Amino acid sequence: MTRTRAAVVIVTYNSCAEIGRCLDALASQNVLEIIVVDNGSSDCTHTEVERRGIRLIANQANLGFAGAVNQGVRATSAPLVLLLNPDTHVIRGIDALAGRFTDASVGAAGGLLLSTDGTPQTGFFARSLPTPAALIFEVLGMNRLWPRNPVNWHYRCLGLNPMRSQEIEQPAGAFLMFRREAWERVGGFDERFWPIWFEDVDFCARLRTGGWSVFYEPNAIAVHGGAHSIRRLPVEKLQRYWYRSLLGYAGKYYKPVVFRFVCLAVAAGAIGRSLTGVRRGGLRNLAIYAGVWGFAWKRFFTPRPGEGLSLSDVRREI
Known about the structure:
This protein has 2 domains: 4-125 and 162-224, Alpha-Beta Complex (Spore Coat Polysaccharide Biosynthesis Protein SpsA, Chain A), CATH 3.90.550.10; 234-317, no CATH class. 44% of the residues lie in helices and 20% in strands. It is built from 13 helices and 11 strands. Helix 5 (132-139) packs parallel to helix 11, helix 10 (235-253) packs antiparallel against helix 11 (256-281) and helix 11 (256-281) runs antiparallel to helix 12 (283-300). It is globular, with a radius of gyration of 19 Å. The mean pLDDT is 92.
């Protein structure tokens, strides 16, 4: 049987409980290469990978998700790369996903993600690229209070037919195939989105800007647990990482005046969350959102948002 012309890249971070099932599910898939890039795990992730004879790159430090993805792509040679989260178990359809790339204009394609109960992860497996309004609604908590508002409906593609193959703007990075040539032309994943969040969104945005199309293919199906690594992180780090990456994306793509509106929304949302947080979690939550508020104001006064930030700058910021 001819192998699918794809390499699988999986980035792990303390993924011992998930990576075994992920790799076992891939055993029946007909791919050229599988490589796991580990970002300094302290659990048994290495053991689970090595006992299955899968190639492992074991980083001593956390390079961030984007950095590890780029490392994995460079270490493979197949013309197509399937980026897979360790808590994602492929059911079928890698061939169907690869079939999308017979059209030379296609740069990336994603499949259908199911929750562990078998229901589609609507609002996650396919999204539109975030507009300023989408991010403002998100940080102000409006999408939680009114989840089916028109802005969120468009952003999370809530009207999308999950059974129809179609062009979309942003498939989930948990189950994302892309053309190596496209990855090379846009410069890979932006490692300034460190350590996590918005790197896949940014990648899809740059693909589309570069003239590549992006598709959703429902015949490619995987079960996705979700958030396995971030559940182990302290909440203060989660908040800093998420808001930092959100504002990093906004600073990169929005005009300075619009970017500052997003900063104001983050600051206002942090005030509301801090008041709620005090009732739920005491002074610790107040301190967390006070930090978010301060960070938003710092970015508000950035002279040229999104420009001139190196990876070391990013790490110092958070």
